[in-house]
């Protein structure tokens, strides 16, 4: 009997040890995978830190050269943003799958019911939906935009009414305030264009040119771009910058050959005796 007890104990020890070792090894694997996920998250956080001074090159001899440089830089940044978006989405997808696998394995190790596991939460949370902006109408009427705020619409209508009443000083002030208050508005380009016309009404060609440049830079291929570019060229001509005016007006036909503003631009070039 005294020999039987040690034998039984030794059998129990050797039979329990492998199972315990296997559980410990599985938990260690899970811990290691969590460490890998933590490293990936830290890498993503480092993406939010700057690496030094910006390397943008927005110089140019003419207004259009600078606008073209800005347009090229925006295209470069857009492409880079799309690359980063794809990379981050890949990491989020892979991390979410790994977390789901870890949850399954932990519940299984603890003896729980894996069938009760719900859908794994997306790593980093769910991104909010982005509403796309509707295009601005091609005339001076306010487009039918369901998402346009009541105050935003009212401010634009007040500025538009002042311009219609030829109260140019008030109109210019209201359109400038609108652009500052609603910089991302679907009416921002139209507001800048109409602010330029208000300054033209005041005889202030310099401020008008700045407003037209803001309208064109705001959307270089939108429905208002041909008109903004023409008005910019005409304003430069009134400022005595004939060379810049001729180059800008020539760009109307080159960029927008089908636009009705081409005829107006050519007429203005004839007045300025452009070569």
Automatic annotation (TrEMBL):
Belongs to the CpoB family. It comes from the Bacteria. It comes from Tritonibacter aquimaris. Its main location: periplasm. Transmembrane segments: none annotated. Keywords: Cell cycle, Cell division, Periplasm, Signal. HAMAP family: CpoB. This is Cell division coordinator CpoB. SUPFAM superfamilies: TPR-like. The keyword Calcium does not apply.
């Amino acid at each position: 009997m005294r020999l039987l007890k040690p034998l039984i104990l030794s059998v129990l020890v050797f039979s329990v040890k492998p199972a315990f070792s296997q559980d410990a090894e599985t938990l260690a694997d899970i811990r290691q995978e969590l460490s890998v996920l933590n490293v990936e998250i830290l890498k993503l956080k480092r993406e939010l830190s700057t690496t030094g001074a910006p390397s943008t090159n927005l110089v140019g001899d003419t207004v259009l050269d600078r606008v073209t440089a800005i347009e090229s830089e925006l295209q470069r940044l857009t492409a880079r943003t799309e690359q980063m978006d794809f990379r981050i989405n890949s990491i989020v997808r892979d991390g979410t799958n790994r977390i789901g696998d870890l949850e399954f394995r932990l519940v299984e190790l603890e003896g729980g019911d894996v069938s009760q596991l719900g859908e794994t939460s997306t790593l980093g949370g769910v991104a909010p939906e982005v509403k796309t902006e509707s295009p601005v109408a091609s005339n001076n009427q306010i487009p039918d935009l369901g998402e346009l705020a009541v105050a935003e619409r009212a401010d634009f209508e007040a500025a538009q009414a002042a311009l219609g009443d030829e109260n140019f000083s008030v109109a210019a002030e209201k359109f400038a305030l609108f652009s500052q208050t609603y910089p991302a508005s679907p009416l921002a380009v139209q507001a800048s264009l109409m602010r330029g016309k208000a300054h033209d009404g005041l005889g202030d060609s310099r401020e008008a040119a700045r407003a037209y440049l803001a309208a064109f830079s705001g959307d270089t291929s939108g429905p208002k771009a041909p008109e903004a570019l023409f008005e910019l060229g005409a304003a430069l001509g009134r400022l005595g910058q004939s060379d810049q005016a001729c180059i800008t007006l020539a760009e109307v036909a080159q960029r927008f050959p089908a636009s009705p503003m081409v005829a107006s631009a050519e007429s203005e070039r004839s007045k300025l005796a452009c070569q």
